[in-house]
């Protein structure tokens, strides 16, 4: 198939997954790029129009070695008709464990035909300037790898012998899944009142509508998935994690996940 368009289907609270998907699409060299962004509550319920010479690139971050529960829930409403799909997870330089296998199994369940997959690295959601964890990723090297991956996938599906026996995409991971997913901690970022201008940016980026803006910023802790989109988007640096256990996890990651990991690609030779 000559790829004439791509659909980027993603859940990406802090935007690293989205950037990788956009770079893969860039490598495919197509102009017709449609975004099916399932991150925010208002965009979370979408359906797929029929495909025509288009390829789907589906992406989500890794939470606790698995896909975020909200991403799975939002992907599940999509129904495909045997359409080709590239599967991407983005993780914060610790591990991706069973997440990419979970995405492959889910994509097949939804009616997609996986052609290739990749696990890329993005700045960890819990990272700050003072406690860096893969800060600045994806960087230029990651972006170049994503672009090259896009070129390879385009060539793979355009080859006359495609689809062939290589269609059974091998993805690492364990089934039944052993990774437990994001821990339930019942904590949320807090707002430093003295710094907050009540601009509302944080509420606008929250994927679960946990934040409401009245005279002050109010957060429903039980809805928070600790994605840190509010922290990273606050122009006044007024959203912070204060919880000790959460800060300890960030400190552990900062000390133990320093060795740079590189993107791993499955289904094409790079
Ligand atoms: C609750 C939670 C759990 C996470 N678990 C992992 C993990 O198991 N392994 C890892 O390397 N990164 C983990 N991360 C980091 C994200 O996978 C990483 O920062 C990713 O780039 C975020 O994607 P986004 O920018 O598209 O939101 C976790 C992040 C959050 C918020
Ligand atoms: S983004 Fe920051 S400054 Fe704006 S309302 Fe939220 S916490 Fe306050
Ligand atoms: S309140 Fe929680 S879920 Fe909402 S943006 Fe902040 S960290 Fe993410």
Indicate the CATH topology of the largest domain. Answer: Rossmann fold
Give the SSE order as H and E letters. EHEEHEHEHEHEEHEHE
Strand content: 15-25%
Work out the helicity level.
Answer: 25-40%
Question: Poorly predicted ranges (pLDDT <50, ≥5 residues)?
Answer: none
Largest sheet: 6 strands, mixed
Total individual domains: 2
The appropriate CATH architecture of the largest domain is 3-Layer(aba) Sandwich
Number of helices: 7
Write down the overall mean pLDDT.
96
Question: Could you give a short description of this structure?
Answer:
The chain has 270 residues and is of the alpha/beta class.
Notes on the structure:
- This protein is α/β, with parallel strands linked by helices and 270 residues long.
- The protein folds into two domains: 5-177 and 259-266, Rossmann fold, CATH 3.40.50.360; 190-242, Alpha-Beta Plaits (2-Layer Sandwich).
- Helices cover 27% and strands 19% of the residues.
- The protein has helices at 16-28, 69-75, 99-110, 140-158, 201-205, 229-233, 244-256, and strands at residues 5-10, 32-37, 54-61, 83-91, 112-121, 190-191, 211-213, 217-219, 239-240, 264-266.
- The strands form three sheets. Strands 2-1-3-4-5-10 form a six-stranded mixed beta sheet, with helices on both faces. The protein has a two-stranded antiparallel sheet with strand order 6-9. It has a two-stranded antiparallel sheet with strand order 7-8.
- α2 links the parallel β3 (54-61) and β4 (83-91).
- The structure holds flavin mononucleotide and iron/sulfur cluster (SF4) (2 copies).
- Residues 191, 196-202, 217, 234, 236, 238-239 line the site of one iron/sulfur cluster.
